[in-house]
């Protein structure tokens, strides 16, 4: 570093929810000279798109059991120190108003994710946090008592450093995994990375003609016949496979070769459906076979289902009376083999990252005192429904509070 260096108390790499929250809490703790880097031209670019642009910030059903991590106990500690009530209270103090829906998802009443980014951005300016947008941190090293940062434009130094640069999901928002490179420079490892909360690719013949159809389904993920996860929600059929909130939830558990079992009529039991179909086949025996499921399941889905059972287009309902149980079973268990996912380009979050075991209870590196990690860069990812944003906010606060404590101790 040379005489052009700029010295700060804390430098934060990443202007997403974790980084912005950490900067705000440092400022509120009276920490001067806080520096926040964001490689994009504006803060919170990914945050502004979350929840389909509606800003699902958290969930009423919050808990560590909603997360995947090598250390859910540490996740629980972080969430208990700054949970959903704390988050809503803080964002409300910045001028927002938040409501929850029937599934517990918490949104700004504006239903605009960008408005959450805006109130955070206004608060950063009000508190005097130095923000460097359009500036990419290429290098982070320790020299003496300071962390030295080199960007594509300048060089800086800080007493404490926080890496909150996200993972590899949604690279169009600037996520390319650079934070992992910075962490590895200090001897940290990175677990295997994979896309999560992502659309799934499946075998295509069974869903031919279903593109664009949305259905409320019960969904089970099966691996060698064993149920790995189950949920209920929207399934959207595509030309490559399936999407929708139920698919996003289950994608965190899915691997190539697994089977998705779709219950196309979760409101009705299999036996009751079989009786209904048998009676209908007898009463309307002269109608085409495709009509048997008319007004019971989506018509296009009914055609695909009948096709999967080998029912010919020229058959009549009356010929299917003896197959009512078989058809009902297929409605309740319409199976698709998983062939992959739509990758990091379409994923909402990254599975894996810097292991929590390499940080202390405050998310400070065990290898380099004063170096912290927050958000998606850690090996923590949550279910669909606001859990990942809550983790980002909570972990950012956790780091900021500890940095403030260390600063006061060292003064």
TrEMBL record:
Pfam families assigned to the protein according to its UniProt record, in alphabetical order? HI0933_like, HI0933_like_1st
Residues annotated as domain RsdA/BaiN/AoA(So)-like Rossmann fold-like: 10-401
Residues of the signal peptide: none
InterPro entries from the UniProt entry: BaiN-like, BaiN-like_dom_sf, FAD/NAD-bd_sf, RsdA/BaiN/AoA(So)-like_dom, RsdA/BaiN/AoA(So)_Rossmann
The Swiss-Prot or TrEMBL record lists the needed cofactor(s) as: FAD
| Gene3D superfamilies cross-referenced by the UniProt entry | FAD/NAD(P)-binding domain, HI0933 insert domain-like, Translation factors
Q: What are the residue boundaries of the RsdA/BaiN/AoA(So)-like insert domain, all occurrences included?
A: 195-349
Enumerate the UniProt keywords alphabetically.
Answer: FAD, Flavoprotein
Entry protein name: Aminoacetone oxidase family FAD-binding enzyme
Q: What is the lineage of its organism?
A: Bacteria, Bacillati, Bacillota, Clostridia, Christensenellales
